[in-house]
Amino acid sequence: xxxxxxxxxxxxxxxxxxxxxxxxxxxxxxxxxxxxxxxxxxxxxxxxxxxxxxxxxxxxxxxxxxxxxxxxxxxxxxxxxxxxxxxxxxxxxxxxxxxx
Length: 100
Hints:
Elements: H1 2-7, E1 15-18, H2 23-28, E2 33-36, E3 49-54, H3 61-65, E4 66-74, H4 89-99
Parallel strand pairs: 1-2, 3-4
């Protein structure tokens, strides 16, 4: 995903989360910051992200990790209702549609 984000979409920095044994693999795929989700809560990091790609779903963690005005892309179903808090009307609707 890191290579895709950088080379296709022009991302300058990519962060990715996985369990401990997958961190080197994330780095090999182009992640500049590999986050161990078994030890750290990426949504509580001081750094917020322009785009968060959520392949797990089931919580509002991705929305908590995105910058104000940023985008959350999910392939794991709808984001739970509390996640819409703080999103613009347009982004809330787009998030709901993508989740369906």
